[in-house]
Amino acid sequence: MITAAGERPGTRNEGIGLDLKLANKKVLITGASKGIGAAIAESFAAEGAHLLLNARNSARLESLTQDLSSRFQVRAETRPADLRDSNQVKKLAAECTEIDILVNNAGDIQGGSISEVSEEMWRHSWELKVFGYINLSRLVYAEMRRRGSGVIVNNIGSAGERPNFDYIAGCAGNAALMSFTRALGSTSLFDNIRRPELVNPQSWVQTKRAAFGAALSRSNEQS
After folding, report:
1. CATH number of 90's domain
2. How many domains does the chain have?
């Protein structure tokens, strides 16, 4: 179960006694090698989900998958790829055609004002955070539509709803992803896919709770 900061991880449904019905679900999590992504991976592992973990750092991914597999007795596999590279995105999607849940989490966007963020910096950040989400979602959505089931969760960030001159590229990128997610979800029910969820947390605890809640509610509706 998702635990608040300071609680001891490693036990399924610890302190809650509920079956979240995520056992054996296949989950692809991007940006999973550290931070929020790793915390989300741990939470899904604690519920018995099978993990496909993506990031650029293969060594960190391998260490995390070994740890989660050992502690939670789940299958965890690495899927290293740079989501700035469209060919690598296509390869990743092709390797993960049977996933039940996609959690887009990879990427951060350069801070600074419009005079401080160069075009090169702006494009570099958006290639991962914005186009990485869009390109992977496009491919995964097509496969989920073919199967008639699936859940997409986009961990975006609250800056899209809180404009900040000193984080202008991030605010614009996050706002674009929020609109993308809502637009994608506006007709997804016609494809038998639950409405894609966006998560705009202010902490890693909120991220895990929101991502879990979205995946849980949609998975249960499909079961």
Report:
1. 3.40.50.720
2. 1
In whole angstroms, give the CA distance from residue 22 to residue 28. Answer: 13
Both tokens of 131, joined, read 């186009």
For residue range 52-101, list pLDDT tens digits in order.
Answer: 999 999 999 999 999 999 999 999 999 999 999 999 999 999 999 999 99
Whose CA is closest to 196, among 158, 156, 147?
156
Tell me the DSSP string of 80-109: ---TTSHHHHHHHHHHTTT-SEEEE-----
**Long-range contacts: 118-121, Cβ < 8 Å, 24+?**
121/169
pLDDT, averaged across the chain: 85
Domain that holds residue 131: 26-222
Instruction: Please indicate, yes or no, if residue 4 is contained in any of the structural domains.
Output: no
Residue 16: inside a domain: no
Residue with tokens 């496909």: 52
Residue 187 corresponds to which tokens in the numbers above?
A: 């007709």
Q: How many beta carbons lie within 10 A of that of residue 113, not counting itself?
A: 12
169 sits in which H/E element: helix 168-185
| 114 part of a folded domain | yes
Asked if residue 13 has pLDDT above 50, the reply is no
Separation CA 95–CA 203 (nearest Å): 31
Identify the residue whose tokens are 């947390």: 201
Identify whether 6 is part of a domain.
no
The C-alpha angle with vertex 43 and arms to 37 and 47, in degrees rounded to 5, equals 140
